[in-house]
Amino acid sequence: MPLPAYLTTAEIAEYLRLKERKVYDLVSQGVIPCVRVTGKLLFPRQSVDLWLMNHLEGDDSASAPTPTVLAGSQDPLLEWASKESGTELALLCQGSGDGVQRLLDGRAMLAGMHIWHAESQCYNDPSTLGLGGMRDLVLIRWAKRWQGLLLAADNPHRLARLEDITRSGIRLAYRQPDAGVSHLLQSLLARHGIDAERLTWADHPSLSEDDLALAIRQGEADIGVGIEAAARRQGLAFIPLQQEHFDLAMRRRHYFEPALQRLLAFAGSERFIQRAEALGGYDISELGQVVYNA
Questions:
Q1: Choices 3.20.20.450, 3.40.50.2000, 1.10.3720.10, 3.40.190.10: CATH for 147-243
Q2: Model-level pTM greater than 0.85?
């Protein structure tokens, strides 16, 4: 019979083969992950498993300090929550690919990513991203988001589907090559048999979701692929194409850093839920789930 997601003090003591008194000592020291519900201690089993893995003999937790930087892809909800929850993380969001490299190099604590792999039909595959060699890699689900076509609110060119980007004079906004949406766009072009060389591209790449939406709003492009939240923030029309997974990648030891714990705790608040609904295009039902644990 599988264990429940949350264990009682007696259950966690048996799980760890410790006396209950020792469990209470670990709680009082703030060492073991737990939550208090109506005065009762509960222990999230996934978090406890990560805590155990983090304390395995030979783990590299004593390595040089990592900058408290949130890198990778920009996400409006994540950006807002990071600031509002007081994580004190420095935001350096320059695309999913950049976040992967900064995580590998030890130049970031967290990396947000949403990289589509057309071959395996999945998002954020560590081996494909070059993260397979990180024996302490953890991926935490942040949200599922809608990607789609962003258009001017009045849609003067009557654009309605992806194939319309091939029409004469239609300028396509785009992101830098290592951005997550660039992988999706290339996959969509291949799926619909569209030759990228025959398209009219915007003069310059947009370096974030908001920048791409703003380029369309300001008339620098007619259409682009981006997230619904960015379209709403700029008052644009939106046509959904595909729901994606946006995950947070980190080393296992950083899961227990105050910054991330503060962020995840805030993400369970009513205020956060209301913000996600207001931004639009988010499904946060899986937020906080461990989707990969090396």
A1: 3.40.190.10
A2: no
